[in-house]
TrEMBL record:
Keywords: DNA-binding, Transcription, Transcription regulation. The lineage of its organism: Bacteria, Bacillati, Actinomycetota, Actinomycetes, Micrococcales. SUPFAM superfamilies: Homeodomain-like. GO terms for molecular function: DNA-binding transcription factor activity; sequence-specific DNA binding. This is Transcriptional activator NphR. The keyword Transcription applies. Residues 211-310 form the HTH araC/xylS-type domain. It comes from Microbacterium lemovicicum.
C-alpha cells in the first residue's frame, strides 16, 4: 500500500555536463548519474556529451529527468550483475523513442508512458537527429498490486485507463519541469495507482483500439517501408490483431494507410509553406517512393492531378 502522507520532495543529484571538456563530459555523466540511475549507461558519443540531469526523492518513489545527446543507452546483464536492482521504471517522453526489452522491440509514441523492469536487460534506441528528454518514475517492487510489465505496456495504448495514465504522467512531467515539487509526490502516487488500474482494466473497445492504431501509424506516414508488421510491433501485438481491428470497422490497414497518405499529400499541395517544393518531394513526404504511382493513386482518389491543386 502507498503511504497516505508524503515527505517533502528533495533533490538527489542535479547538474549538467555542458561546462566540461569533450570526453570529460561523458565520464562525469556516467560517474554521477549512471550509479544513481542503477546501471543505465549511454553509448560513448563521437562528439561532445551535452547533458542535463536532475534526480529527485519523492519518498515512496524516485524521479529522474534526463536530457542527453542522441545516443543509445542500455542496461545489460553485466550491469545487472554489478549493480542489481529490481525496481520498475515508468518512462515518459513527449517525443517518440524505441526500446528493446523483454524480447520485443517497442516503438513508443510521444506522450505514451512505458514501463521497464530494471531487473531485466534493455536498450534504448534513439533517433540520431533528436535530443532525448526522458522522465522516469522509479517504482519499488511491492507498490503495484501486480507486476506484469508486458501486459501493462500493451494496455497503456489500448485502454481508457491507459489514456488517463498518459495524461497524469504528462502532468507530473510538467509539474517537475516547472519546479512545483511540493505536488509531485502525491501525483506520483496517483500514477502508481493508475498503473494498477491499467493492469486490471477490461480490454479496450474496438473503436479505442482503432484510434490507437491510427494515431501510431500517422506518425510514420512519410516512411514508404512502413507496414502492418511495424504497427503491430509498436502496439505490442500481432499483425493479425491489427488487421482484425481495422476489419471490425470495414477497413483494411493497407487501404486506410494509402488514403491517409493521399490526404496528407493533398494537404501539403495546398500548404503555402510547400508551394516551392516539387511534386516528387510531396510524394516522398507522404510515403510514396514512386512518383508515377503517386500520380496514378492521386488521380484515382481525387479525380485530378497533384499539380492541378497549385
Amino acid at each position: 500500500m502507498i503511504a497516505p502522507s508524503h515527505p517533502p520532495a528533495s533533490v538527489t543529484v542535479q547538474g549538467s555536463t555542458r561546462h566540461l571538456a569533450r570526453g570529460e563530459d561523458y565520464d562525469y555523466f556516467c560517474d554521477v548519474v549512471a550509479p544513481v540511475y542503477v546501471g543505465v549507461r549511454p553509448d560513448r558519443p563521437a562528439g561532445v556529451f551535452a547533458a542535463d540531469f536532475a534526480l529527485y526523492d519523492f519518498g515512496a518513489t524516485g524521479y529522474g529527468v534526463l536530457t542527453t545527446p542522441p545516443v543509445s543507452a542500455q542496461r545489460d546483464r553485466s550491469a545487472i550483475a554489478r549493480l542489481s536492482d529490481d525496481a520498475l521504471f515508468l518512462n515518459f517522453s513527449r517525443a517518440p523513442w524505441v526500446v528493446e526489452h523483454l524480447g520485443r522491440r517497442w516503438t513508443v509514441p510521444g506522450g505514451v508512458p512505458f514501463l521497464l523492469d530494471n531487473s531485466m536487460p534493455f536498450r534504448i534506441v534513439v533517433d540520431p537527429r533528436r535530443t532525448l528528454r526522458l522522465h522516469s518514475l522509479r517504482i519499488p517492487r511491492g507498490l503495484l498490486a501486480r507486476e506484469d510489465v508486458v501486459r501493462i505496456d500493451e494496455r497503456v495504448r489500448a485502454t481508457a485507463a491507459g489514456a488517463v495514465l498518459a495524461a497524469q504522467a504528462g502532468l507530473l512531467a510538467t509539474v517537475v519541469e516547472e519546479g512545483r515539487l511540493a505536488a509531485a509526490p502525491a501525483m506520483s502516487d496517483a500514477v502508481v495507482a493508475l498503473l494498477d488500474a491499467v493492469d486490471s482494466s477490461e480490454d479496450a473497445p474496438s473503436a479505442d483500439r482503432l484510434r490507437v492504431a491510427q494515431t501510431s501509424a500517422r506518425e510514420r506516414l512519410g516512411d514508404p517501408t512502413y507496414s502492418v508488421d511495424a504497427l503491430a510491433r509498436a502496439m505490442g501485438c500481432s499483425p493479425r490483431t491489427v488487421q482484425s481491428v481495422f476489419a471490425a470497422h470495414g477497413q483494411t490497414f493497407a487501404a486506410w494507410l494509402r488514403d491517409e497518405r493521399l490526404q496528407h499529400a493533398r494537404a501539403l499541395l495546398v500548404d503555402p509553406a510547400w508551394q516551392g517544393r516539387t511534386i516528387a518531394a510531396v510524394a516522398a513526404a507522404s510515403g510514396f517512393a514512386d512518383v508515377s504511382a503517386f500520380h496514378r493513386a492521386f488521380r484515382a482518389r481525387f479525380g485530378c492531378t497533384p499539380s492541378s491543386l497549385r
